Amino acid sequence: MVWRQLHRWLGLVAGTIALVLGITGTLLALDPLRNAWQAAPAAQDVPVATLVQRVQASVPGAEEIRRLPSGGIVVHAFDNGQAQALRVDPADGRVLGGYQPSLLPRWVKNLHRALLMGDGGRMAAAVVALAMLGLSVTGLVLLQRRMGGWRHLAGPVRGTLAQRLHVLAGRVALPVLAVSAAAALVMSAATFGLMPLDAGAEPDVASVQGSQLALPAGQLPLLQSLRVQDLRKLNLPAADDPQDIWRVTTAQGQGWVDRYSGQTLAWQDATAAQRVHDWALLLHTGEGAWVWALLLGAMGASIPLFWTTGALLWWQARRSRPRIADNSPLAQADSLIFVASEGGSTWGFAQALHAALVAAGQRVHTAALEHWRVPPAARYVYVLAATYGDGQAPAHAARALDAIARQPATTAQVAVLGFGDRQFPAFCAFAEALEQALRRQGWPALLPLERIHQQSAQEFARWGQALAQALGQPLPIDYRPRLPRTVALTLMSRQDFAGGAGQPAAILRFALPGRGLPRFAAGDLIGIVPPGQAVPRYYSLASGSGDGFVEICVRRMPGGVCSGHLHALQPGDSVQAFIRPNPGFALPAGRAPVLLIGAGTGVAPLAGFIRGNTRHRPMHLYYGARGPARDFYFGTELQDWQADGRLAGLHTTFSRLPDGGGYVQQALQRDAAQLRDLLAQGALVRVCGSRPMAQGVAQVLQSLLSPPGLAQLKAQGRYAEDLF
Q1: Least CB-packed of 270, 275, 401, 688 within 10 Å?
Q2: What is the band of 1 on the pLDDT scale with cuts at 50, 70, 90?
Q3: What number of other Cβ atoms are within 10 A of residue 683's Cβ?
Q4: Which domains does the chain have, with CATH numbers?
Q5: Kind and range of the H or E element at 19?
Q6: What are phi and psi of 209, to 5 degrees?
């Protein structure tokens, strides 16, 4: 909880200035790239004395030689009283052209370093650097927790578009930002004198001319021993000042050389602080390491995306937390609702439950889970808990388990309802932990633990019916999710099937509207809103945007409002719909083989994957149905796709035929050897259909894998389910 709150407030408070520093830092990262492009670096073993001789031969009047961090050599000289800065090829002393320190306006650097405010701006920039260091450290901690540990940091990212973009931008920005911010703090400490860089006072030395003439550079022992790669700056003695001396600065220190005797008059080693500062300068600017400069530029460019998505997630969480009407004081309530929500969506379910209980005549108090306290008068307690990341509690409820452990149980009956996503290995793990903690404390159970997948309104409604039975009174819960804008879809064609168990099915193909529908892929969900209804029904898509149509496979359920409405459609009729991404079920790009397992109408998204497999990735489909004449959905298409190479293997079972092969999980068991080979090759597994079927499939696959088996596939993002 502390990590998340610290990360959130650092990002929000320092975010605006960080945007400025990120954008200007990206521009400044161009300088090291330009310098590296222009540099003509010397051989590693060229003595500084040789470089001086070459320079003096081509640039009369040279007064100073600098080696840039990029390796380029710049000579400063005077020509007829006119100052010059020339780029020189160290191999032969040839002048390459004039040197211009920067392509960027000076004010960009001033903005980045001091926010155009002098010392006050430098102090503000240092404070922001400290905030950015804290932001990056807390962000890295939260990122590894979300991804399930440091080993999975580069794994597939699940969640909404904003969440995925935030994580992806964070992967680029946070490690580099941490290093750059730490380096900026070192540089700021040097700027404000907190880290003295000077080795001490410069020695008072001068050449004393005797009878000899000044020695050429080639006869100076110090310049002969130093190599160009170590040179920072060399000041040549002035021709009109007989007492002037040679001054040389390297990464190791600086020395003073007599121009007549060649004797090294003094040498000062670079201080430890200076060496640290040199490294900080390299890490913060990228000067001398153009690859690192590229990373710095990418980091700076990702900061606007990182901050924007972070602010959007914070705003969405605040917006989705509703105001609770008729919220009774805790001491007067007979029913308590405690909520743990990371993104805020769980509060919508709590609001609906609260309103239903109030309508049933109960006094209800609803609060966040961190405020856990159950007065003796309370009769019922409801805990609605979402799970975050790899099984963690939402940030605000991180200490809820400790609070539960501290309070002795009362006579109040408790029901725990978990919210999560089955694509995550630790599906509803926090709700499970709460359930176990409550039972250990001795709290009586009102209902067994129930889990809601992806905020399913249908699953919540079923839980509400079970709750009404447990309470012994009607409890109509009117949950109205916030829906995105819908668009009208017009039915183009339909294929009807008799189906099984008196439940006919149809493949419905809708025309792709000209606008209003975002891009989608097979396996995403389409929400259909029946006329007069507020709760959508979700169906897995058997097509992607590139196919030019919207296709689903729907079984008509007894009493089903939405399925009945869809089955009554005729070509030309329309429905209101919207797209809901399902990134956890999507197939990542690559050539790894794919194992598709489905039964009944669950074959729809799997058929969509195969339809889009124009690059002939190895795909193997295990498909269970009742009989080829009743519910062999997409049968003709599957055979065509196998013929043209989009489907590598088609394995069907028909449970109502004597020799049909039984159920799909039995076919998997029979082909155990082939499946082991596919899984050893890194195969991705996607399962779609009913829960009982998926449980049987999971048992078979678990038996084929060595421990931890299926859990490891889930953690790697290789195994995902889409169940109904």
Answers
A1: 275
A2: very low
A3: 19
A4: 2-32+106-196+286-315 (no CATH), 46-90+202-268 (no CATH), 321-471 (3.40.50.360), 487-580 (2.40.30.10), 594-723 (3.40.50.80)
A5: helix 2-28
A6: -75, 125
